[in-house]
Amino acid sequence: MKGFTREETRFSLCGLNCALCSMHLGGYCPGCGGGAGNQSCAIAKCSLEHGGVLFCWECQEYPCSRYDGFDDGDSFVPHRNRQQDIAQAREMGLDAYFVRLEEKRAILDELLAHYNDGRRKTLFNTAVYLLPLEDLRTAMTALNSRPEPAEQSVKERALAAAELLRKAADRRGISLKLNKKPKKG
After folding, report:
1. How confident is the model at residue 32 (pLDDT cuts 50, 70, 90)?
2. Rounded to the nearest 10 degrees, how much is the dihedral formed by the CA atoms of 113, 115, 119, 121?
């Protein structure tokens, strides 16, 4: 969007964790206001109209009607945690939140590098995005205690990782499937 730029591209204006987005990781999206490839965004336009707030929660009108039904469907990343993530970032402070986000990113990088059989990228992205960091740490500890990766096929490693993540999600009542946007009208 013309005139809208941001230095912080790990966490979007509206609360998406861009650092965990498959589009951002793949280089297809520069992140919220990150430069070339940045898409037109009604929330970015709103930010400009409200003095260029860095995050929606800094606006006096937050939460506004733009958030009504906003999280009902997912795109490349789950939108379901957005308001929860905003609340965490506000409560912890951005620096502490980014430390946790970077740890999640490191876990995602490890899953993609060592446990992806070519069929698990979306599952790993979604799990890291939605599961609490503590559950991800537990899953990675369990994975790292298994036999050496060289002794297992990538398919075996992928299945083990997927099973651990699904079990963690089930314990929390979290669905790892992306929700389709409801059809209008």
Report:
1. confident
2. -50
